[in-house]
Design the sequence.
């Protein structure tokens, strides 16, 4: 299984959960939150990967990079952008 396949599974699950919660509580993440999170992910993941703390099996990557960060690495941030506000809203109602 490639990182892209694994990310697709988790993104679909996160999107379904977020949709279910957000349709009930009407909360949405806006670009003012998403953009800084994605930029910070790009900066810090480049540092972490370039320093050798984290590595990936190149045979399981799509081959699209932002700096030295594979595009698949941004899926974790996207899942957080989808789920954190939804879960927060659901927990505070």
Sequence:
């Amino acid at each position: 299984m490639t990182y892209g396949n694994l990310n697709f599974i988790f993104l679909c699950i996160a999107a379904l959960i977020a949709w279910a919660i957000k349709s009930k509580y009407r909360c949405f993440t806006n670009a003012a939150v998403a953009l800084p999170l994605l930029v910070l992910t790009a900066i810090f993941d480049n540092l972490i990967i370039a320093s050798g703390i984290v590595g990936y099996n190149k045979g399981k990557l799509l081959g699209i990079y932002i700096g030295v960060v594979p595009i698949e690495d941004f899926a974790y941030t996207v899942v957080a952008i989808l789920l954190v506000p939804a879960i927060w809203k659901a927990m505070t109602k």
About this structure: DSSP finds three helices and two strands in the chain. The helical segments are 3-25, 31-50, 75-92. The first strand starts at residue 65 and ends at 66.
